[in-house]
Amino acid sequence: MKSTTHRSMTGMALLAIAGTASLSAADIAVTQTNDPATTYATTLNFDAAATGAAATDAWAGLGLASIDAGAGGGVVVDDWSSIVGPWIGTGNSILGNFGIFMTIGDDLTNFSGQIWDPSGGPPLGGFGVFVFNDGVEVANSIIEPAWGGVGDSWIDISATDGMVFDEVRLLGFGFDPSTFADNLSWNSVPAPSGLAVLGLGGMVMTRRRR
Fold first, then answer.
1. pLDDT at 5
2. Quick one: pLDDT at residue 126?
3. 52 φψ region: left (φ > 0), alpha (ψ -120 to 50), beta (else)
4. Which of 115, 151, 168, 201 shows a CA-CA span of 20 to 30 A to 85?
5. What is the mean pLDDT of each run of 10 residues along the chain (210 residues)?
6. Which residue from 124, 161, 119, 145 is spatially nearest to 7, judged by alpha carbons?
7. Residue boundaries of the structural domains of the chain
8. Contacts of 89 (CB under 8 A, 6+ apart)
9. What is the pairing mode between strands 127-133 and 165-172?
10. What's the CATH class of domain 2-209?
11. Which three-class secondary structure state does DSSP give residue 101?
12. pTM of the predicted model as reported, rounded to 2 decimal places
């Protein structure tokens, strides 16, 4: 298992130093592993989705406000095992040309998923996991992506000490990166209005008991 914790470096800076390690911080950890990552409360494996190009808000009902390819035009859903190889797993997964960019409607404390990309390792390639909150990059990690049945395909992003995030960008640095993803899951933090409703509900119940 490989675990790296990075924070507050821009994506452009990472592209320039893809072969070097970043500074670490304890509040957001990006972990790459060969073992299945933790499955969180909300899950998305794309098996129930229709194949073909997906609208950027196709899974808004799950709280995934937007999902798009890095090159734009949306992600493509298919059973890629029959096209790129059985090592990508059975059932549907998604393809994003030049990366997969996801924005979640709520703040998150955890995110996990399975990622494949042919970009290879740094310094000639490499793969970036970039984490944002309210449009500001709060964490990142440069890894060697899994491909062709080789490498660790699972990633996990976990925030501690009150940190949250609402956007994950997955981007290969190869000549023509094609990023595939499946088995996504995340834990969200209830919006302030939801917390207020919960608090009012608790007050009502307390008064009824009296």
1. 43
2. 94
3. left
4. 168
5. 44 38 63 96 96 97 97 96 94 97 97 97 90 96 96 97 96 93 95 51 47
6. 161
7. 2-209
8. 81, 114, 182, 183
9. antiparallel
10. mainly beta
11. strand
12. 0.82
